[in-house]
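Quick question: what would this complex look like in 3D?
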Amino acid sequence: MLSAFMVGAAICVLATVACGLLRLVLATAIADRILSVQLLATGTMASLLLVDAARPTGTGAGELAIVLAMLAPVAAIGFAGARARSQGPRHDGDGP
Amino acid sequence: MTLAFDLCLMLLLVALAVWTVMVRDTMSAVTGLMGCGVLLALAWMRLAAPDVALTEAAIGAGLSGLLLIRAAAYEHATEVAEQAPRGTRPGPLATVSVVALCVGVAGLLVFAVLRLPIPAPSLAPQAVEHLEATGLGNAVTAVLFSYRSLDTLLEKAVVVLGLVGIWSIAPDARWKAPVRVAVVDEGPMSLLGRVLPPFGIVLGILLAWNGADDVGGAFPGGTVIAAMWLLALTAGAVRAPSATSGGLRAAVAVGPLVFLAVGVAGFWLADTFLALPPGATAKAWVIVVEVGLTVSIAATMTMLVAGPPGGGATG
Amino acid sequence: MSTLSSVITVLGVLAGVCFFVAGTVGLLRFPDPLSRLHALTKADNLGLGLIVLGLMPQAEWPLGPVRLLVVWLAAILSSAVASQLVGGAIRRSSGSAGE
């Protein structure tokens, strides 16, 4: 009973972030796309934990969720790094 | 109910993949790909393959995303200029033939998949049956280090060769310069680059250590450590090493070398190259190799993403 | 006890799902990138946090709840930093390009 509820909630979360991906498609700025992928990552973590809790024995879902949580900001960091390089003071001696 | 979840996941994955292929802008495609990586990790988890899921999360959603974002940002400047003018766009004949080719390949793939026997051929029962003799608890690790260790050894050598390839495109004048990672000089990044790595490194070591008996392994573990090193580099918290540094080179080489040494020791320990004595001693050797590989993978992955010394041509 | 833990789970997970829905609606409907960022953080912090809170009573004592808590703490830290970085980038680009 409770496990069916959890899987149902996981479906809700996944469907919700799927709707959030509309922003990925409609966006005009890269920042919006990064936000939308960020939401997707969080939603994936939540549904992963929900589906795993619905099973009697689960292995590895916690570790996977932690890895996802720790690496989730990588997109934003790469984006900010690219910005820092293109808008910040120019490095001299850039290759041909 | 779980079936409904899996169906949702599949639809979402396919839709996102199609969008990633269709979108014109490189940077947007990279964000789509990172989303696909996250969903793929969940999909592997649903297929009860947590080891693959961990690696996919660390590589697909993490490191390769960072690598591709940097590449896309570099490409972005040239990309806009190279938008083809109207006259040079492919004509209808070229478009139709490309579409026909794609549909043909996809059709053949569908045909091949549908022709697979049910149940699909599998070596999993045999792999699990002899798990006792390997002294390991994780069948994936047993396949990697006991059944197919030559493949694993060559795989790691290929990763090191990839790094050699990247380093070789550095101009001579900048060969001794440290590798360059764009430092994000902002407060929050400085915090993250100092707070998260200690925990992340512990997690990476835990994953590598767990690999023998439980979910994890040298590859996801090493990759998580690499991601933490990159975070610290991006925050400017640690100094970027130079490709000529002996310590860095030792770290890159130690994994394959230890693997090779244990492989050669197999002539005396067991009866042939890469053979391991059965039982608990085998596990000890596998752990020795895994420790070396974790160090190597962490160093190599970091340097692969960081790029050639001095920024190379991509500065 | 078991009933109580089930009630906590149902309430926590439902509230978490509500925040996910709210965050997504905000991401889709808010007019400018900075307010969309604001909406996203609700899903990141509260949505995931409440779901984790709801799942805690069901997790295997003692390490299960700790693991869930660690997931949430890692997610909060990373999402806070990611939001700051994206927010800063949005602000700079809107200052220079007038988006």
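Answer marked as accepted. The interface with chain C takes residues 184, 186-189, 191-192, 195-196, 199 of chain B (CB under 8 Å).
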